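Technical annex, item 7. During the second reporting period the consortium partners agreed on a shared format for inverse folding records so that results from different sites could be compared directly. Each record opens with the tokenized structure and is followed by the designed sequence. A conforming record, contributed by the partner at site C, is shown below for reference.
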């Protein structure tokens, strides 16, 4: 009996101290799992499909990229004087020519101030997520441990290693010279981090993705999630009504799932995200807060893409966000339906768009929407949407 009790105690202790990455991370929430499985099977059979070869080529190139860290290529420190603190400048704010030193800066929506390129922390995050994604997909499809080895190194440097990791906050994101040291809406700059849990999931079968690193990454995301919920900047972003609010929810829900806090994720979808439908969609599906922007096409698609991702996450929480509507009867489906005539070029985009129209977000929206709303008319859409409409 004592031996049995000892064995049970040992088992319970191991469950406490061992990382729960296998329980939390080995499930894809956002990426196309079935599509990746097909690519994996093609590789196993020795197929040289063009799309498959692109995956391998990108993974090979990714081996040569990085490492990435906000402590690298630092040209300016945040007011904290800590190189580990993320720093970025508000993109649409410019020097005031009527002021001697140009401060405080003034806003020109949609017109990016080239000064922002002098700071590189945002680029470091973007390059990290893209590179780790390419390595993770390459590993999953091919089983080549070299890709997982490099991904492990990059994750360790950015999130775990005390000498190089980013502090889990965006206190100094999108600061405005002469006005503030950082803003809540700067939090949108980490929306790409939702790809990190997906990458970790794809590599969960690799011996090269070390438990210590996975645990460290998860710990970083848990700390960042806490900051998102409790900091003044996080609370401010939570109150944003437009795409900032949507992308805030996306991060909170995704990071909650990544760190095992399913109840928090469910509460946010139910109590915060669904009520956002009331102000974000007109009865016809137009997004009035986004069509007002000077790059309206970009913002409409970015926001709708975030709603699509929230719909995917909600499925894993037992919530059908695809069919949720506001008091005007509009929701994600209506938003897609409203957008389709412009994607098909049946209608000319009537709102301001300073930048050249891109199609990456649109393609993602359509790919998912086809599976969720088969009753909508997707005819007339090409496999590769044009870069300019």
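Designed sequence (site C submission):
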């Amino acid at each position: 009996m004592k031996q049995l009790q000892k064995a049970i105690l040992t088992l319970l202790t191991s469950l406490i101290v061992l990382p729960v990455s296998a329980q939390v991370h080995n499930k894809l929430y956002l990426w196309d799992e079935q599509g990746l499985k097909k690519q994996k099977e093609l590789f196993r059979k020795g197929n040289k499909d063009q799309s498959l070869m692109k995956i391998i080529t990108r993974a090979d190139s990714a081996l040569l990229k990085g490492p990435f860290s906000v402590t690298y290529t630092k040209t300016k420190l945040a007011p904290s004087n800590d190189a580990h603190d993320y720093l970025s400048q508000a993109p649409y704010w410019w020097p005031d020519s009527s002021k001697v030193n140009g401060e405080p800066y003034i806003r020109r929506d949609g017109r990016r101030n080239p000064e922002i390129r002098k700071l590189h922390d945002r680029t470091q995050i973007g390059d990290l997520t893209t590179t780790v994604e390419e390595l993770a997909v390459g590993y999953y499809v091919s089983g080549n441990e070299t890709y997982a080895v490099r991904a492990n190194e990059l994750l360790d440097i950015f999130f775990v290693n005390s000498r190089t990791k980013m502090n889990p906050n965006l206190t100094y994101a999108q600061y405005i010279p002469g006005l503030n040291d950082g803003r809540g809406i700067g939090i949108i700059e980490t929306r790409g981090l939702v790809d990190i849990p997906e990458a970790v999931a794809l590599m969960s079968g690799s011996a090269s993705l070390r438990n210590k690193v996975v645990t460290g990454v998860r710990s970083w995301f848990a700390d960042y999630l806490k900051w998102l919920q409790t900091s003044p900047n996080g609370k401010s972003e939570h109150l944003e009504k437009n795409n900032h609010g949507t992308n805030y929810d996306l991060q909170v829900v995704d990071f909650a799932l990544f760190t095992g806090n399913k109840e928090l994720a469910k509460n946010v979808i139910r109590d915060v995200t669904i009520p956002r439908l009331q102000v974000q969609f007109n009865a016809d599906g137009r997004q009035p807060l986004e069509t007002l922007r000077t790059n309206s096409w970009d913002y409409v698609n970015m926001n709708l893409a975030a709603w699509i991702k929230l719909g995917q996450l909600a499925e894993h929480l037992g919530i059908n966000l695809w069919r949720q509507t506001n008091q005007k009867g509009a929701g994600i489906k209506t938003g897609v339906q409203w957008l389709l005539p412009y994607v098909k070029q049946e209608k000319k985009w009537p709102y301001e768009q300073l930048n050249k129209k891109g199609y990456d977000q649109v393609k993602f929206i359509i790919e998912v929407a086809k599976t969720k709303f088969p009753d909508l008319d997707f005819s007339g859409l090409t496999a590769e949407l044009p870069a300019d409409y």
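Confidence is low (pLDDT under 50) at residues 1-25. The domain at 241-389 is CATH 1.50.10.100 (Glycosyltransferase). All partners now use this format for quarterly exchanges.
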